[in-house]
Amino acid sequence: MLLYAEYLLGILSAVLGAIVGSFLNVCIYRIPSGKSIVLPASHCPVCKYPIKVYDNIPVISYIILRGKCRNCNERISPIYPAIELLTAIMSLILFRKYGLSLEYLFSFVFTCALIVITFIDLKHQIIPDVITLPGIPLFALAAIFFMNVKFMDSLIGILAGGGFLFLIALGYQLLTKREGMGGGDIKLLAMLGGFLGWQSLWFIIMASSLIGAVAGISTMICKGKNSRYAIPFGPFLSIGAVAYIFWGNMIMKLLFYR
Ligand SMILES: [Zn+2]
Which residue in 139, 145, 187, 209 has the most C-beta neighbors within 10 A? Predict the structure, then answer.
């Protein structure tokens, strides 16, 4: 009986994730242009035709409509169902880790913020302040009160996260007279440090630099090494942070024998 209940809650967490993912799509699409994320209702980006409720079921509608708008037949980007699916999977695995708890709730909201940041950064090379600036104090408070993160660990996380990248950015700018790391990355790392504690920063910086280096070298090979295409760093920081939620404890033990 208990097992069935757990299965059911697991499925519900995935469904909730998909629905939230559908909302994240709206945020990703509208936040960069400063539009309201509530109004107007979802519409086709090409023909502006309002999307009917029955055509707005996460993932499933995309499959039924074979990735096309019902009105104008224009192709809908597969990014939309991919983000819904990703959010559903994140919700499910966080639920498996934390169970029905406030830890699940807050780590899910945190992950959602990172999904929005990642896809906006990939598309526009910006990390919106509307998320990171309120995110720094709000996620820090959630971590201190509900996630067993110590007040000082969170506070040092914000200061070290912000300060570390600020110094790197300053150094880079002084050496090359070019702006490398954006201010958005600095605020994002402060938000990550505040929610996960300063200890997480070692791992996040190492992991994201490693993934970033691999991505950077691959882009150089594909696009020619003189390309000025700046790879956004926000997605790598986000991947590092999510990886820390799942494997942080284990990796810290391996690194520092704690
Ligand atoms: Zn259309």
Answer: 139
Give alpha helix (H) positions in 57-198.
60-64, 79-98, 102-124, 129-146, 151-176, 183-196
d(CA 241, CA 99): 20
Q: How far is the CA of 53 from the centre of ligand 1 (A)?
A: 15
Element (H, E) at 203: helix 199-223
From the CA of 69, how far away is ligand 1's center (Å)? Answer: 5
Rounded to the nearest angstrom, the distance between the alpha carbon of 75 and the centre of ligand 1 is 8
In angstroms, what is the span from residue 77 Cα to ligand 1's centroid?
12
* pTM, 2 dp: 0.89
CA distances 170 to 180, 190, 240, Å, are: 9, 16, 23
* pLDDT-based confidence at residue 118 (cuts at 50, 70, 90): very high
What is the Cα–Cα distance from 160 to 13, expressed in whole angstroms? 34
Contacts of 8 (CB under 8 A, 6+ apart): none
- Nearest one of 210, 215, 217 to 251, comparing CA atoms: 210
